[in-house]
Amino acid sequence: METIKIFLVEDSNLFRKLMSSVIQQDERYELVGTASNGEVALDKIPNSGADVVLMDINMPVMDGFITVEKARERGIRAVFLALSSLGSDDSEVAERVIRLGATGFVAKPERMLGIEGVWKSLGTKIQSAYETKKRLFPDSSAPLSDQPAVRTEQKAASKSMISVLAGSSGSDKSILSLVPQIPATFTGVTICVCKIPSFFLAQIAKTLADECQVPVDIVTDNMKIRLGRVYIIPIDGNNYVIKLSRATGATFKRQEPGPSAVESPSIDALMKSVSKVFKTRSRGILLSGLGPDGLQGIKEIELAGGEVVVQARSESMAPQLAAAAFERNSGLLEMKIDEMTVLFS
Known about the structure:
This protein has helices at residues 13-25, 38-48, 64-74, 90-100, 115-136, 171-178, 198-211, 267-278, 295-303, 320-328, 337-340; strands spanning 4-9, 29-35, 52-56, 79-84, 104-107, 162-167, 189-194, 216-218, 229-232, 239-245, 249-255, 282-286, 307-311, 333-335. With 345 residues, it is an alpha/beta fold. It has two domains: 4-144, 3-Layer(aba) Sandwich (Rossmann fold), CATH 3.40.50.2300; 147-344, Methylesterase CheB, C-terminal domain (Rossmann fold, 3-Layer(aba) Sandwich). Strand 1, helix 1 (13-25) and strand 2 (29-35) form a beta-alpha-beta unit. Helix 2 runs parallel beside helix 3 and helix 8 (267-278) packs parallel to helix 9. The longest helix has 22 residues, at 115-136. The radius of gyration is 21 Å and the shape is elongated.
């Protein structure tokens, strides 16, 4: 069994000692370092070999928000799980820190006696974060800045392309920037998969419906696909794929995820179905994101003769997904959001 290396960032001496003790008693983990604030952590983490960083949000000198952001900018090859006891605004805290690049968020216990319960909740998230880290950073010795140079020329696009815009952390900002720019003359199909908490997705859907020049629909089971529209995949615990039949044409189909599936909705499953139905008219666009979901999907689209585009790492709030895509294929087309508008003109 692999040992997961953990680095703990916590300003409370008591909580840091208690958490350190719990980690050291669990044979699945190795505590490779601690720090009392983000500034110290950023200096120590690169040489610690940490896989997962457990980090408090509310700290002196440098808080967790700034720490996650600077870690991303420096290309630190570890994933961050945020801890917070800030109280009633947990949802806003979670949204902000995940947008900045954290893999997940866990509320700290109100009393120290509750630490064992928090640890049980953290166990699953630590394992998931570790799997994400292995896929994103298979060679932890090479910083993100050492990735091969990528082509940035723009590509002419067919108006009838079926595009899947997909990502996780930070992808909501990308979608809100790009989709309203799709012109009223658009005759293709755009499908958005934004893997963020459902209560944030609902607001995004409302904003797009108000601002877009083309109709925007939230996908439901058996919904028929029509040209000239934007579709938003819901966050309801299911996967959505596209099926083709002579009777109904192309429709969305809801699928229950398998026991070993990634968190739903699966980007890979949707892109694979798009590649099968639309072949050379399929296009996969990977946006800001953390996990590996989408890497297999763009491969399927490439094999079908479709187009693949990745959001520029320089502007992504979470460039890890793009970095992993380029590790697999350094020849991918990298574009900024403003440059992508040509794909829908």
